[in-house]
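Good morning C.,

I know you're traveling, so I'll keep this short. The sequence:
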Amino acid sequence: MADTINVKAPDGSMVAFPAGTSDETINRAMNEANAAGVFGKSLRASIDAGPAQDDPGPSVMRTVAQTMRAASNGLTFNNTDRIAAGINALIGNGDYASNLEGQRKESNRFTRDYPFTNSAANVVGGSALPFGVVGAAANRVTALGRTLAGLGTGAIMGGLSGAGASPDWTDLPQLGKDTAVGMGLGAAIGGAIPGGAAAIGKAYNKASNWMVGGAHGMSSGASKYLVPALEADGPATVKAELGRLGPDAMLADTGFALQGTASGAALNNPAARSIAFKNLRERDAGTNARVQKDVNEALGPAEDPQTVRNAIVEQRAAVDSQNYPPALAAAPDVRTAPILQQLGNLIPQSVGMERRALENLRDMMMTTERRRVVDAHGYPMFDARGHERFEDVPVSQNNAEVLHKVKQELDNVIQYDAPGLGLPAGALSRQQAMLKILRHQLNGALEEQVPGYREANRASAALAQRAEAVQGGTQYLGSGKTTPSPQRFADEFDPLSPGEKIAFAKGSRGEIERMLGTKANDLQALRGELQGEGGWNTAKLATVHGQDAADDLIASVDRNLRFRDTHNKVVENAQTAQRTAAKEAMAPSPPNDLPDLIGPGTTTLGLLSTAGKRAAGYIYRGLLDDPTRHYPEIASIVTAKGPQADAFREALEAAISRRQAIDAHAPAVGNGAALAISTVVNGLLQDRRARQSAN
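The tokens, ready to paste straight into the viewer:
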């Protein structure tokens, strides 16, 4: 046939070799067979007889072939002999039944003669079932799903293997029994592989973490608590929080898990409590100084608003004393008749304080002029003694200096609610409309008719507006119905002159200083003042001082609020627990209380047994390692600041990275170990079956 090479033996029989076998291999095989006396008797008789007395045994090639046959048994579900017998029958080398019998005898002989090689080959062949189970379970998400997949796949492959190992497929009862046994063994192995892999992976994980999963620079006992805490809070989040909170930040400030670790250490160990309390209290004592420093860096040093305003008022007075006198001294007569005419029309329409103010204003804007008395024809008139007659005639006040002082009286009433126009302070706080009109007209007359007066007004007004800006800077932060929105405030602030904006900022800085002085110990209240409802005050602060300064100011308060929160939760909670524990420990026992060892039903045996148990318990607890002995170290780590806190964070983060790498490898290690173990177990079961068959 085309796929064999037929070689004639010395006894005339034909020996078939697979196509492609080299001449060297064919010659060596024929010589070995001839030397063994195979030729001259049937091949079947030679196989049945076994090797001759002086036969050194099968050749290396034959041993390799039989080893491969044993290994392939597992891969073919124990059907290698059947497959080989069928192939020989197909190529015309004997019938299937005889070939199968010969193949089995050859396999049995190899099992007897080379037990260790056969066992090793069976172990290799036994890998089919474990690999099949792992492949089937790989796509399952849950542990139950993987176990069920392993059970099912193992049962199927085990059943096929059991059926293949059954010697006679025509014996259906035996075939069924062998198949059932194979299914049971396969299901047991397949079902155990996923769970075994997980258990081995966890064991590898724990062992590796114990050896290399700790953080450098701290004990394994401290790492045991701190590494999971950092992992829970998130390494990236903790790093960002340390950067945001600045050099005074502690790991305990950066997340709930780390803060809880600090609290747990302080609650359960006196030394840890002392360390945590000392570090947190020292930092808390510096809160006011830190906030003050941050505010000074963000906004500059503070000045008292009233002092600033007084200085501006004094400067204004000095400027006015230089600008107004020269202009007023050289001023011409000022015509005010139109104003007096309007004033005369307004008085009859007014009542009460307003009328009184208008009448007083008219009197201030009037004066008298001594004129001779004339008759109807314009001739002078004389009295009985012959003296010429004179009279005082009311006329408008034309003196610029006097009119300037009248305007100042109006300003006292209108702008400052101060006494003026012969009225007490605040008398016309809600009736100023007419006075404002008249003041505007009087000021216009002075500016139009007195050279230099307009310029003096502008210089004085600029300084007055700065003084008002200082006052406004102390009042713009707040809440309530009258508080302007950030946009409205910005619309009013932007048109101010540079000098007014500087003055406003000085007033604002002084107001913030006042808040610090009155609310520094209540950071929540301070933040409420600086933020306002809906963050309005923060937006206004940004308009006045700049966005960066406003952000730095709020960030400082937020940072110190976080520090205060950590202090309160760790220190105050631990103190409460400490007081409770001390109270319970020092509470006196009632004098008549007896130990609970003795009761109405106590027997001697029971008394001895209970006492023994208690004694054993005391001894056992004394031998145990103190679980809190690492807590002082933990307290030191989570309350460290600055570069030290960063160094601890980096060490813990590196430990997390190592643990994550171990976690990533653990499933593969577990799967590999489970595969190896199950392969050996399945191979040994195959080998046991082969030995039973050989015997």
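Safe travels,
E.
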